[in-house]
Amino acid sequence: MQLPERQLAVLEAASATDERSIDALSEETGLKPETVTGAAFELEETGLLEVVERTDERITLTEEGADYVETGLPEVRLYRAAVGAGGADEPVSMGQAISESGLEGGAVDIALANYARKGYGTVENGQISADPDADPDADREAAALATLAESGDEASVDVDVDSAVLDRLEERNLIDRLEHTVRTVTLTEEGVTAMMEGIEAAETIDRLTPEMLSSGEWRDVEFAEYNVEADAPEITGGRKHVLRRTAERVKETLVGMGFQEMEGPHADAEFWINDCLFMPQDHPARTHWDQFALDVPPIQELPEELVADVKAAHLEGVDEDGDGYHSPWTEEVAREVDLRGHTTSLSMRYLSGYADATFGGEREPQRVDFEPPQRYFSVEKVYRNDTLDATHLLEFFQIEGWVMAEDLSVRDLMGTFEEFYRQFGITDIQFKPHYNPYTEPSFELFGRHPVTDELIEIGNSGMFRREVLEPLGVDCDVMAWGLALERLAMLTTGAEDIRDLHGTLTDVEFLRNAEVSY
Fold first, then answer.
1. Distance in angstroms (rounded) separating the CA atoms of residues 493 and 497
2. CA dist., res. 496 & res. 507, Å (int)
3. Whole-model pTM above 0.70?
4. What is the mean pLDDT of each run of 10 residues along the chain (518 residues)?
């Protein structure tokens, strides 16, 4: 009997009494695993080998999980710090316990989220207590992480860890469970007989070359047979990120509805970000708790006439019966630089007519008057000091838009949303009245998640107030909105967590397979 060299090598490395894995045969023969796999399937067809497949699940520690093996779980560290501060006797300051634990950033939130769940104590009104009967050394999750770490880079599913604990560790993104197919081969009786009778290596060719064609050698060689059903290495091609595809679809939709696109700076003066929007300078949302202030020189290039008009609106209001905030307003605050918390700063620049103005010259920059009707939009990144959760990120994309026209109403605004979201197959849009300092009336938008069936907020909108429009020189109606691109993507892809879309917790397989509604 004659066999191709690769088949003969695999047959000689196989055993009639022990199952040999593809990886073991690959190492022994020096052939690639995919070559061994193909040869094994070919030998199985001839009855010389038996190939057995099974799905094997392996468990690996994530980078965060490995870090906790070294430093300890955040909730355990917090408990020990609380005990050390006297929390086992009476409640102590949570700030003191956190400081002594050495926890920082997101680790603090993780510790607090798991502290009470595990019975370590209570956290109330800024005070933390420690249960003296709790035993952090018996923490099952910490013990499981240690066991998995001792098992090496990949632990098998039959490791001595409770399945419920593994589920919890997976939920906390401390472990990864990876499934892969394991194939083993065994010599059959026919294979043993063939080996005893003797097998010779047949010279076969697995590819046709230009030289063989030109020389005519191809007529005298034996070509290897190909098993088209055999596994081949998986090659994943690149594709656009789901958010990029959603953003492009949004732009196409709005351009098709007659809108033009805006653009502008990510770091801007508070004047454009907040003051033009009739946001009082002592508003809580203008503190460092909600926005990111930059330690850079203040912006000097602001249109003096517009600054004076905006200041007057804040202090005195507009129209005969108008009324301002009667709170402090200074140009120093207006000129400070922040990362924009919304792209409405672009709307203020465009509505005021100063979007393309050149500052720094001898003359006051010239305002370009917009004549209604006008429609503008942007799909740009914004930055907010939010707490990370399933629907909030520190930076995200906002779909900004506004329409300037005579005699606009809330009906026009609602109709615009219904038409826009209908382009994405979303027809269940709900509205709830809301308060904004810069729009009246105002309302929030909610969409129903296709997987969880929950209503999630997807945007904020309203009609710009006269206190916003009059200083900008606009004497007709303007309806405006800020919609969340990521939350639109959640509705169209079924993602249940905004962190599924981008960030360190992103599931690459989800991004490869997620589709955007058209």
1. 11
2. 12
3. no
4. 82 88 90 87 89 85 90 92 90 89 87 90 88 91 88 58 85 86 89 85 78 86 71 76 91 94 92 92 76 88 90 88 85 92 92 73 64 92 81 86 94 94 91 93 93 90 94 94 92 85 78 70
